Amino acid sequence: MTTRCSNNEVFVSWLRKYLSAPLKVAGVPLAALQKNMPSHVAEAMKPLGLCRALRTNSNEVATVGYSRIALAPEKMTKLIFHKLEKVAKKRGGTASHNISRKVPRKAQSTLEHMCGVELSWRRKDVGAVLAEEQRWNSRYTGFIAKRCRTSTQNRIPAKQGKIRRLLPGPLFDVEGPLPMQGLALDCEGVLAVPTYEVSLLQIASMTSVYVVDMLTHGHAFMEAGLRDLLEDNKVLKVLHDCRNDSRALWYQYGCYLNPIFDTQGIKRFLQSLH
Amino acid sequence: MELTDTNMRKGLNKILAEYASGINNLKEGVKQKYIADPNYWKRRPLEADAIRYAAEDVAHLLEVEREMSSRLGTVQRKEVLVRSRQAADSQRCQRLSDLTVEGGEDICEAGLSFSYLLCF
Questions:
Q1: Number of domains present in the structure of chain B
Q2: Which residues of chain A does B74 touch, with a Cβ-Cβ cutoff of 8 Å?
């Protein structure tokens, strides 16, 4: 593979910001942690982006995504939690592990057992997370709340008028220069009626592939800049069969993929030419 | 008639074989698993194969785009972009999914597939 994408400013800056930024665990750069790690553990922490998961926010409370920590090897998990404990003790406090509310009970107790730490649920934060999610839902996908439950399954009622109004204006400037730089996209998950559940989003440049865990952190990533990238009309989005992917991203995140290069349809087009 | 989703998705490896340097070797194995198990992609941690499958699905797509673009003129390239746009937009039509009859969703899917095909 060549390095064709190296001059794609949008992609590079996005990556630098959201995937390649130095990760910190309780204020300690991950690189420093990795120095003391056995090499095979450190190796396992390299991307696929799923493993690049531990971030601390400004309050230095480690927000641990379950899926991500589970994808790291067990030893790694232990190391991280021990480090958290140490740092917290040094500062004269107790470690507050703000575990995502999506951690199932069983997983929580496993983690507690592994780390020898009691993990508390912080109600206030859970409330904040919920409020945040609600805000995003109402802002971008207000109609999703109107899903009605029938006897068998969730169905989305037709709200064509509302959907139309939510569509951004111009698609892309057909007269202007064509978008040349591209990213390849694909989604995995249950993408069809009635759930539209994006589990993974894969993004590929010419040089690398990133697998982003949307099931656990989709809204956070969207807010952090993924939406800007996906809706940027200077970046061509190359998809194979855009139907399910674009639909699912739209209904779940209100994200409007644009512009699209659909290889499946375009193959039909090419065949019709000859 | 290639209306159903499974049939259409088979095309990825065909397209990769024709336009790109590599194909997704894990297609058959992983696909069988997630068709059999609707919760396959929800699991955490994911199987290593699942992640590789997901990654290989997109790894060569840009080569395809490059190759296809080289076969299209500027005017045609504009046209396929507009058609791709229309194809994606056609999928937002949800009216059919309101059907509460038995098999309503199948009809809906078939309708959406059809409106997709009409765009190209």
A1: 2
A2: 178
Question: Do residues A77 and A69 touch, judged by C-beta distance below 8 A?
Answer: yes
List, for residues B11-58, the tens digit of each pLDDT value.
888 899 999 888 888 888 888 888 888 888 888 777 878 887 888 888
Tell me how far apart the alpha carbons of residues A200 and A227 are, in angstroms, rounded to a whole number: 15
Claim: this prediction has a pTM higher than 0.80: no
Q: Determine the pLDDT at residue A193.
A: 62
Domains observed in chain A: 4-121 (no CATH), 180-273 (3.30.420.10)
CB contact under 8 A, B44 and A250: no
Backbone angles phi, psi at A159, to 5 degrees: -130, 60
What are the pLDDT digits (tens) for B47-65? 878 887 888 888 888 889 8
- Boundaries of domain holding B4: 1-71
- The alpha-carbon gap from A46 to the nearest alpha carbon of chain B, in Å, equals 14
Within 8 A by CB and 6+ apart from B31, the residues are: none
Q: Which helix (H) or strand (E) holds A213?
A: strand A209-213
ipTM of the complex in this document: 0.83
